[in-house]
Amino acid sequence: MMKADLTAPGASTASEVAAKQKGKLAFATAAITPALDKVKANNTPSSEMAFDVDRLSGWFGNHQALFDLDLKIQAKAVTAIIGPSGCGKSTFLRCLNRMHELVRGARLDGLILLFGEDVYALHIDPTLVRRRVGMVFQKSNPFPTMTIGENVTVGLRLNGVRSRSVLNEHMEKALRMAALWDEVKDHLDRPGTSLSGGQQQRLCIARALAVQPEVLLMDEPASALDPIATMKIEELIQVLKRDYTIVIVTHNMQQAARCSDYTAFLYMGRLIEFDKTEKIFTNPSNKQTEDYVTGRFG
Amino acid sequence: MTVTTSSTYHTWRKAKSLLMSGVSFACALLVVAPLGLVLFYLIKAGAGSLDWRFFTHLPKPVGEVGGGMANAIVGTITLLGLASFIGVPVGILGGIYLSEYGTEEMNWWIRFGADILNGVPSIVWGIVAYTLVVIPMKGFSAYAGGAALGFMMIPLIMRTTEEVLLLVPNGYREASLALGISRWRMIIQIVSKTALKGIVTGVLLALARVAGETAPLLFTAFGNRFWTHNLKDPIAALPLQIFTYAISPYDDWHRQAWAGALVLLLITSGINISVRALTRGKASGI
After folding, report:
1. Residue B49 domain-assigned?
2. Which of 124-163 (A) contact B at CB < 8 A?
């Protein structure tokens, strides 16, 4: 039903939608032009695309954080965004589920299609986008007033799901998917904050999964965790990619190499290179990428 | 200047340090001493007149010994209840606006206004309530007294609510929104709930603050020697009753004024103690 709300009929490629929007007073105007020449068809195989990002630029006030990003994110695969601190990784991620606009003075320009539907179209409610595109943050943040169980079901409950049995069913499913069920099933009514750091992060993943999104954005999900907890999160990512599209921001290159299928390298707000992960890490075509992944800067 | 290392310098420095510590200790004592003295004198003068009748009986007519302040105690509680009807919703919603919605310039003006209102002499609030409630209703009433106290509570509650809401880490707001939860639900169910203890504390402190106010009630609630059966009628309040009894020429009334003051002090310190109890268990971070 959410899908139906989002559908812009017949608009399936970035350039088509861009062409449609050209005449309208759509979101931040200026540079939306059909960009056929810019579509990087060679980067990605032909299977389904979750995101089609076209000429995305982002600002915080007068400071431009992203410059003309073009990339396609494949569905049911893991795409890693790497780059030094401040290169715009998180900003890019937050553009994908319309969290960027929550920052005062932030704006963007360009086009983002989620399975062919314009995420920033005027009639689209950002809360509906965010239900389809879940997010896990760097710092685990289970709600302190809620139990473990309540934390998982909060997204459903606050969106109007009342039935106990439905909630319990989704809670167990989400906790199992987040590989946390066996550890917490006997004390679901303890506070969410009573768990260890790694468990809290998996609880946050379960919370995001419970609303059944199509995409899961992860903003440095393991950077505050110890190696064992990090390993668990990475294993989890491998399992989750069977059902979900995952975009993970990380400044840990080994992590990107280990768990992603595609890697995008961002530097100073620009997309330097985007390719299959093994190519980026073994035979990058750009000198800057090579310097970065070999640890010569950043 | 070179650094002196002689032992006389050292001794002199130690003596200075000792002297200054002594002075600051004396100042601290000076702050606490009046509280102790007031409490001691109140108990000494008031406890003797505190008995069961004080809490259950109406004041006796002039000349008759005995009677109590039951109506004033109930009156004060009634006034606090009425004041909460105005002060709590407006104050809390205003605080939510400041913390969650307002723009920077707007907030600056609202905070500025609230801080000035917090410093307005309480008798002025009485005049405001007199103009807005007493004159249109053509008479002193419990409503007017409650309004005067309620107006006073608004800026107090607004500022404390804003402060505790701002203490809620932004990560919780972002996490809620990222789940596709709408903003107002996020504010009510996540942010306010996380800060609930702090908000309740702010409300209680505001209640304790206005419970002892006399000036705003002088020409609003007005006082009453009998039970008030209709909120449109004047109503008794402890501070008013204490004021009336204290300036009277009768010894028996003086004793009752002391007892009343003791009860008022017990009520406000009771509220303050429950605030302490509330804020002690800071388990949830707020």
Report:
1. no
2. 127-128, 130-132, 134-135, 137, 139, 141, 143-145, 154-155, 158-159
pLDDT at A47: 66
Of A97, A139, A159, the CB nearest to B178: A97
Which ipTM was obtained for this model?
0.80
- Residues from chain A that touch B182, judged by Cβ atoms under 8 A, are 127, 158
pLDDT in tens, A202-220: 999 999 999 999 999 999 9
For A34-64, what is each residue's pLDDT tens digit? 333 333 333 444 468 999 999 999 999 999 9
- Closest by Cα among B114, B82, B80 to B95: B114
Over chain B, what is the mean pLDDT?
Answer: 90
Residue B269 pLDDT greater than 60, yes or no: yes
Domains held by chain B: number: 1
User: Hey, what domains does chain A have and what are their CATH numbers?
Assistant: 2-293 (3.40.50.300)
Residue B45 lies in a domain: no
Provide the mean pLDDT of chain A.
84
Closest chain A C-alpha to B68 CA, distance in angstroms: 45
Asked if the Cβ–Cβ distance from B179 to A141 is below 8 Å, we say no
- Our CA-based measurement puts residue B103 at a distance from the nearest CA of chain A, in whole angstroms, of 9
From the CA of B161, how many Å to the nearest CA of chain A? 18
**% pLDDT > 70, chain B:** 96
What is the CATH classification number for the domain harbouring B240?
1.10.3720.10
Q: Which domain holds residue B80?
A: 72-278
